[in-house]
C-alpha cells in the first residue's frame, strides 16, 4: 500500500454526491496510541502509561470501522451520533438550509434518493 495513503490525515469533504470521511490506517493507529484514552495517568509510575499498542493496523482499522457502525436498539450508531451533532452545527451556521415549519407527513419520511 502507498505509504502516503496509510499516513493520510483525517479528511472530511464532499466528493461528487457523497460526504466522504477518510483517514489513513497509520494515522488512525498513531492517533489511538498517543491519545488520552490510551495513555492514562498511572499513580504508581507517577506518569502516563500507554495501555495498548497497535500490532496490526489493518485489523485495528477494521475493528474501529465496525464499532462506528454498532447499532443500538433504536437503530442509532456512534457514527449517526456524530452526524446528528454535525447537522445541528450546519443549521446553526446556516449552511444550505432554510426554516421549514410544515407538519411532518409519511411522504416526507420516504427516502427519495438515488
Protein model, in words:
The protein has helices at about 5, 25-35, 55-70, 80-90; strands at about 10-15, 20, 40, 45-50. With about 110 residues, it is α+β, with helices and mostly antiparallel strands. It has one domain. Strand 3 (about 40) and strand 4 form a beta hairpin. Helix 2 (about 25-35) packs across helix 3. The radius of gyration is 19 Å and the shape is elongated. The mean pLDDT is about 95.
Set down the secondary structure blueprint.
Layout: H1 3-6, E1 11-15, E2 18-22, H2 25-34, E3 41-42, E4 47-48, H3 57-68, H4 78-92
Antiparallel strand pairs: 1-2, 3-4
How many strand units? 4
Topology as a string of helices (H) and strands (E): HEEHEEHH
N- and C-termini, Cα separation: 32 Å
Low-confidence stretches: none
Strand arrangement within the widest β-sheet reads 1-2
Strand content: 5-15%
Radius of gyration from CA coordinates: 19 Å
Number of domains: 1
Largest sheet: 2 strands, antiparallel
Shape: elongated
Task: Please sum up the structure shown.
The protein is of the alpha+beta class and about 110 residues long. It is about 35% helix and about 10% strand.
Amino acid at each position: 500500500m502507498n505509504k502516503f495513503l496509510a499516513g493520510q490525515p483525517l479528511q472530511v469533504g464532499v466528493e461528487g454526491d457523497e460526504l466522504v470521511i477518510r483517514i489513513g490506517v497509520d494515522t488512525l493507529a498513531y492517533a489511538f496510541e498517543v491519545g488520552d484514552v490510551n495513555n492514562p495517568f498511572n499513580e504508581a509510575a507517577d506518569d502516563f502509561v500507554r495501555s495498548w499498542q497497535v500490532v496490526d493496523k489493518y485489523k485495528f482499522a477494521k475493528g474501529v470501522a465496525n464499532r462506528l457502525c454498532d447499532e443500538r436498539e433504536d437503530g442509532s450508531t456512534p457514527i449517526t451520533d456524530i452526524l446528528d451533532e454535525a447537522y445541528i452545527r450546519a443549521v446553526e451556521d446556516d449552511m444550505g438550509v432554510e426554516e421549514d415549519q410544515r407538519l411532518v407527513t409519511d411522504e416526507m419520511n420516504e427516502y427519495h434518493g438515488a
